[in-house]
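User: My advisor, Dr. K., asked me to get a structural model of this assembly before our group meeting. I'm new to this, so sorry if the format is off. These are the inputs:
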Amino acid sequence: MDKIYRILKHMEIFRTVKKETLQYIAQKGVVKNLKNDSIIYLDGENINKIYLVLDGKVIISKSSKFGEEKIIYIMEKEKFINEECIDNKSTSTSLKVMKEATLIVLCKEDVLFLMENDFNFNLLIINSMSSKLRRAYRQILNLGLKKINNRIASKIWKLGRDHGYEIEGNVHIDLDLSKSQIASMVGCTRESVSRFLTKIENEGIISQSNQKIRILDMKKLEKYNE
Amino acid sequence: MDKIYRILKHMEIFRTVKKETLQYIAQKGVVKNLKNDSIIYLDGENINKIYLVLDGKVIISKSSKFGEEKIIYIMEKEKFINEECIDNKSTSTSLKVMKEATLIVLCKEDVLFLMENDFNFNLLIINSMSSKLRRAYRQILNLGLKKINNRIASKIWKLGRDHGYEIEGNVHIDLDLSKSQIASMVGCTRESVSRFLTKIENEGIISQSNQKIRILDMKKLEKYNE
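Assistant: The format is fine. Below is the predicted structure of the whole assembly, which you can bring to the meeting.
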């Protein structure tokens, strides 16, 4: 418990909350270490749990009744997940592990207790929802208006910004990404992704090997993205 | 002020909040009566206001930098709008009036004061965001996976459910809807909407006149929607 408390205390998001709030989370929260592809919950389940990512990466997605999957977000450290369950409805997305993840699992009741007793913690939950709403609106705009190639370019560019590290001017995306996963993020076919990535590889904008993408020219990629 | 207090007191969403909360809203809120097509705010503005719809209908949309518009939600009575501004960022959508609307405008600071002093009011804000997130996720799934005709069918069906009234087994959608507006909700061209509506009119599923749509067969429409 002391170890978890120390981890929480060093998290940027928690700098304004009460000491007692972090002690409560460390005491009540259950820490889970999860392997790649573990499914944490499925869309429509009655899960009254709220998750906080301590490490690794998880995928929030939604599936059609025919089983097709649309990836909505990739979430990492310091992000809350499933806080929308506070409204007492079932989950509206599925959650699975992309890259070995450590999560703290909290009961909804404990989160409600903290929200009521620490207004700054309450604001963290509100801000987490605001941020998800803003991202969802941008995605709706892109899906509704942009052409498929622009959407793929836009997604690769954002993955570079959010999950990239730079080496000698190139941005390495720190994720193992199959073409199907990119297709599921963009909402298009695997073939469209394959075709477009080959095209921009030939143009010297990216390079690909073993599910890893390196962006060689962020500016040119950004142009496609408009 | 007494009149507003009485209106608020009869609203379903407020049945769990404190009497003082409603008195505070009635005292601090500014009531605005707005005509069709009035623009309340634009995407990217610094508006520290939160709105509550008392009557009428408003459109939440987002625009690309080329000025193309994607309608995200049509909102009506008892809905909060722009509560995501609690995170201190600029607006992430535009808001305009669809059908003469009466809104209460509250400063963000007043909403924060109420959230801190009435936990049930705080939960209303959380529930409002949850509901928007759930709707946004469904929209992302539909935009990402469904074919355009299915998306149009799905949108007409939902408009019937949310804004329809029944006369002799037919569902009249209580909105003046141009083809361009439907296109902007669905994220497709005006021509696609026109073509598909004519098709399902010929199939006896809907009838159209003067921007009004009547659904003659909800079941058949639902089949298109899958």
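One thing worth pointing out at the meeting: The beta strands of chain B are 30-34, 39-41, 49-63, 69-75, 80-81, 94-107, 164-167, 170-173, 206-209, 212-215.

User: Perfect, thanks a lot.
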